Amino acid sequence: MSGPPDRVDQHEAFVRLEREIGLLLRRARAISARLAGQLHPDLDGAAYGLLALLEDAGPLRAGDLVARLGLDKSTVSRQVAHLVDLGLVDRAADPVDGRAQVLTPSAEGSARLARIRETRRVRWEADLDDWPAEDVATLAELLARLNRLGEAREAEVRGPRPA
């Protein structure tokens, strides 16, 4: 005879979530630093995230990068200048406001990023080879939900954008 189903302790579930997310974030920072070095030996981890965001969501203004990445304006400015100097990011006049500039990955920046992402995808496939595809899809969806929540929380902290 089996007993009642195991109940999940809510407090312990959130303690474990905080611990696991913290570990994931620490690893992500180390991986970003390594990947930035693969993009170019002179780059740091923030540059990888910046280029990836431009590839996924660009073209963007520098202010959009500051808001989306949660980095200091001077850090983003320095990273952008470095990426432009290395030929990995292009600047152009904003078609909506010619006084502003928008940033996009250069052809070289996109190509380097694509190579790194393909290598990472192959690694994920190898690491999770024994996971059912449904579990991988569920993990991706749960992470997407968590990311949307984080983006919404960041938008609340930043407040409305000036017109």
Automatic annotation (TrEMBL):
GO aspect biological process, one term: response to stress
Keyword Signal applies: no
Example GO molecular function: DNA binding
Domain HTH marR-type: residue ranges: 14-148
SUPFAM superfamilies: Winged helix' DNA-binding domain
Keyword terms: DNA-binding, Transcription, Transcription regulation
This protein's name: DNA-binding transcriptional regulator, MarR family
